[in-house]
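Hi support team,

I'm opening this ticket because the web form for multi-chain structure prediction keeps timing out on my end. I have pasted the exact lines I submitted so you can reproduce it. The total is 495 residues across two entries, so I didn't expect it to be a heavy job. Is there a limit I'm missing, or should I split the entries? Thanks in advance, R.K.
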Amino acid sequence: MEMTILFIVSFFLAVIETAIPYLIKRTVVFGVTIPDENTRDQRLLSFKKQYSIIVSCFSLVVLLAFWVWGVQANPVDAQLFLVGIALPFAIMFVSLASYVYFHARTSQLKRGEKWGEDSRQVKISDLSVRSQDEMLPWYMYLFPMLVTLGVIVYTVLQYPSLPDQIPTHWGPNGQPDAFTTKSPASAISTLLILLVMQGMFLMINETTKRSGIKLSATRTTASRIRQLTLRKYTSWFMFITSILITMLFSFLQLSTIHEGMFGEGLMLIVPFVFLLVVLGGTVVFAVKVGRAGEEIGSESVAGLADFDEDQYWKGGLFYFNKNDPSIFVEKRFGVGMTLNFANPKGYLLVLGPIVVILVVSFVI
Amino acid sequence: MIIHIEPQADTPIYTQLTKQIIEGIARGYMRPGDSLPSVRALAGDLGVNMHTVNKSYHELEKRGIIRIIPKSGAVIQAPVVVTQDSPHYEHITDELKSAIAEALVLGIQTEQVEELVTSIIQDLHAESKKK
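Hello R.K., no limit was hit. The queue was backed up. Here is the completed structure from your submission:
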């Protein structure tokens, strides 16, 4: 079972990493801004293909090797975990290395061909675009939090009948493998951590809502569709994830309060199903957002080009723009949002919940 | 309504913004009572400094074209009857004087100037007439 989970996680990762060149907006290739009329250049298409082939072949080989080794050599749990954790990192490393290589090749090509050098660079905004925004209102994220409060109240009522050793961690076989002594704080520590995560999702939704909706001057309709789709799906995906983790944590809390209420089979299946649903959800998200707006043909106007933002994207991956008040921006190589590293509020948003969770875990 | 900014042009960005908004209202893309996005929202959408957008909004408010609502954005003001002693009238006179003086210096004839004024007004009103 452990092996299956590790395998599945790496498998999903490999699928998404392989597909990335075909899910990003077409005007940014391997982190380099390319004018719309040059995006179908054969050399760029071949870069994308080569990248996908490298990542998929490597992933296939290591996944197969992992499976064979796991089944044949029947390794000890500790060994299995070590290798199983190294697996996704190896896949990520190879895709990152390939990205860096093709980023350099693409930059070189753009410079050599002098793409976009004689066009007027323009930024645009549609004053009415925010009225078309379909992100969820903030109070939707309160519903899972109310459920958590309900479970906390229930725990408090059931406190006398709780076991003396409260589980704090569950292993891949579904059984608890780490405990802490019962106290009012430790009885609800899992739920407190859940509350922090739910709060984090709410904050991310609101922060994303306030971040800029970036339209392209040369692909206005397509970029509008893509930005609005990204925002809407980000909002919904986070909401659904918040609900799913609420269900999972509530399930675990109930199993703590009523020892033996759920059979071993159920304890195994529930987290596993959770994992599959969330990972499957990320693939749906990646494909829906990745293909949004791609059906729109060329809208480019001669002599006009999008403002080249390459200067703000360090290595084509990290956005650093002091002048942009946005906290989140759309990723360049991937699907989703990334931080504007020049805005300190972003660091707070990401590190804050982690700090709180660490405090809760160690103090309680 | 779409706003175009050329970050590398000689004209400062806030001036480009101001002109675009004024022209948008003149063409009827925006009506009195319509709202402009908040400074933060527009700055984030364009990827420019909030001070730049703020400067543009304040400029427009000074000229009597919009009214800023703190934290919310701004509202387009309804045009009022402008008399010759109004400061707005004086401002427009100055602007026209510069443009016309330059036209005359370049050798453009009086009739051409008047024709130009008429055709510009026609062009600005063209889209709102269609509605």
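A quick check on our side: Chain A has nine helices and ten strands. Let us know if the file doesn't open in your viewer.
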